[in-house]
Design brief:
With about 220 residues, this protein is of the alpha+beta class. Helices cover about 15% and strands about 30% of the residues.
């Protein structure tokens, strides 16, 4: 996919606007192996805050947790909170193109408790017109998780049993049965199966219903 996008990325059609510097990013779950990845194109002039908003909308946001980028040993936060001991952190209101370049690899964390960690790499750059600050170029197909009981496509994950079972996935029917057996009929420990590395964590239920970055 990376080679294909480098050769064949679609140029947005427009009769106005001038070319600007765009960066091609690969974004992945920091833990290997993982089926979750995305390729995006983003203006070099866009801030880290714009990238943070996008990651929250498509992969992460559940309860308004704090987040940060780690780039060349420097921490960038949306909210500077000295109580966490990050005395030298900087604001995310900095242009991406000022802190990374082609070949750069950097890290991202969402939620300082039940943390989801991502790895980002700058794969290339070009000059082209882009109406929005960024756009999604490609992403992984949703992995197909199977119900541990019947083998049908799973829709729910038991977040408590994830610590005890190798495969805590269930279809709707067997999720109800499992809840009766393990949780006295309460389904509060279940979260939906979604295409995100934050699946089954905290209160995450899927991407934002409305987002300027996903339209």
């Amino acid at each position: 996919m990376t080679k294909h996008l480098a050769r064949c990325v679609e140029q947005p059609v427009s009769n106005k606007g001038k070319p600007v510097r765009l960066l091609h990013l690969r974004i992945e779950d920091a833990y290997k192996p993982s089926p979750f990845w995305m390729d995006i194109e983003i203006k070099a002039s866009a801030s880290l805050q714009v990238l943070d908003d996008f990651l929250r909308d498509i992969w992460l946001e559940c309860c308004g947790h704090l987040s940060l980028f780690k780039i060349d040993g420097v921490i960038y936060e949306a909210v500077i909170d000295r109580s966490w001991g990050l005395d030298d952190s900087k604001s995310m209101e900095v242009a991406l193109g000022k802190v990374v370049q082609v070949g750069s690899s950097f890290a991202y964390e969402y939620d300082y408790g039940s943390t989801t960690e991502l790895r980002l790499r700058v794969l290339g750059e070009r000059n082209a017109y882009l109406k929005k600050d960024l756009r999604l170029l490609a992403r992984n197909e949703p992995p197909e998780w199977r119900c541990t009981v019947c083998g049908q496509p799973a829709t729910q994950i038991d977040t408590e049993c994830a610590y005890e079972m190798d495969h805590p996935f269930f279809c709707d029917l067997h999720a109800q049965e499992h809840a009766q057996q393990r949780h006295d009929g309460d389904d509060y420990m279940f979260l939906p199966v979604v295409n995100s590395p934050r699946m089954g964590t905290c209160g995450y239920t899927g991407p934002a219903d409305e987002s300027p970055y996903l339209a």
